[in-house]
Write a structure and sequence with these properties.
Layout lengths: L1 H8 L14 H11 L4 E4 L7 H11 L4 E5 L3 H13 L3 E4 L13 H8 L25 E6 L3 H10 L8 E5 L3 H11 L6 E4 L10 E4 L5 E6 L5 E6 L10 H7 L7 E5 L8 H9 L3 E5 L9 H7 L5 E3 L1 H13 L8
Helix pairs in contact: 3-4, 4-6, 4-7, 6-11, 8-9, 9-10
């Protein structure tokens, strides 16, 4: 596997492989000696798990890490835990019979990870009160990508048990999204699960895009429901944040849209159009983003009404969800 990764990375002129390590001890020594900009880390290592090594690394020398994982249930669970601990991204390990083509995006992922803002992990704030006496008047739509596993958890920690109906689109493979929902549900007050087709949007429920062949849209033709749309990628992604945002255009004054850390521009155009149609919008601040890509573009297009550090992001969305509908902006 290390030979395959090296062979792929050496075709990218912006990258230089400075060291390889087969064990956690070798990895620690290589980090101290070569001071690399980025590390790829397998979740399965001899003597010490990839998770345990990642925890120690983020505590003593925070740096961008890209996890390499199998898409098994166990591999997906560990990958989600790794991203919650601070790994920038996760790529799928080639399966038996597969080839280097399954690693096609590895070099680009590492190049982009080199610019990620990685620091020591801050403790997650305690959960808020079980319920909130405010009257929520809007639904919440949240989009994220690179670095957003931790950001979404911190956002939902601020949500009460009776939070506004909430939909989340996060860029990850389908098995990772299943593991992500299963991880979040016991950690926060609202119920968190993978969205199905035709689910009613209910207070106290957070529905996550299932990924795979589907985008997660809002069906605005009657009582608000989810719609899983089997369609090509939008803005380069499936599930797509833009697809979700744009589907809610007809009910924009009843929407709060939030855009979290991530590479690229998915969600930026959808947020701009939602805001123009009367939605309230929040962007994660540059200072608290792992990758200030999607929020930056959304801000440049005029889609961001309010900026918030990740520790205040959830409360900012709840605050906007309580305010009366306003006239459309131009």
């Amino acid at each position: 596997m290390r030979r395959l990764i090296r062979a792929i990375l050496e075709t990218e002129p912006r990258l230089s492989v400075v060291a390889e390590a087969g064990t956690a001890r070798e990895a620690r020594d290589a980090v101290n000696r070569y001071r690399p900009d980025v590390m790829t880390l397998d979740v399965e290592m001899p003597n010490m798990s990839g998770l345990e090594f990642l925890q120690r690394l983020m505590r003593h020398r925070p740096m961008p890490v890209v996890m390499v994982s199998t898409l098994t249930q166990r591999g997906s669970d560990i990958a989600i835990e790794a991203m919650a601990l601070g790994a920038v991204d996760c790529v799928e390990k080639p399966r038996a019979g597969g080839g280097a083509d399954e690693f096609a995006k590895l070099a680009q992922t590492i190049v982009l990870a080199a610019g990620a803002r990685v620091g020591a992990r801050r403790p997650v704030r305690p959960e808020t009160v079980p319920r909130d006496d405010r009257q929520f008047r809007r639904i919440c739509l949240i989009g994220g990508s690179t670095g957003a596993v931790d950001a979404i958890e911190r956002t939902l920690r601020a949500f009460p048990a009776n939070c506004p109906p909430t939909l989340i689109t996060q860029h990850m493979p389908e098995p990772f999204l299943v593991s992500f929902a299963a991880r979040l549900d016991p950690l926060v007050r609202p119920r968190v699960r993978i969205a199905g087709d035709g689910d009613l949007l209910r207070a106290g429920e957070v529905l996550i895009a299932p990924g795979g062949p589907f985008h997660l849209n809002v069906d605005t033709g009657g009582p608000l429901r989810t719609r899983l749309l089997a369609a090509p990628p939008v803005s380069g992604h499936r599930p797509s944040v833009d697809a979700m945002f744009l589907s809610a255009g007809a009910i924009a004054p009843k929407v709060v849209a939030g855009i979290l850390t991530g590479m690229g521009r998915d969600g930026a155009e959808g947020m701009r159009l939602l805001r123009q149609a009367g939605a309230r919008t929040v962007g994660q601040s540059k200072e608290s983003c792992v990758v200030f890509g999607m929020p930056r573009v959304a801000g440049e297009l005029g889609g961001v009404e309010r900026w918030a550090d990740i520790e205040e992001f959830g409360e900012a969305m709840l605050d906007l969800a309580t305010t009366p509908a306003r006239a459309k902006t131009r």
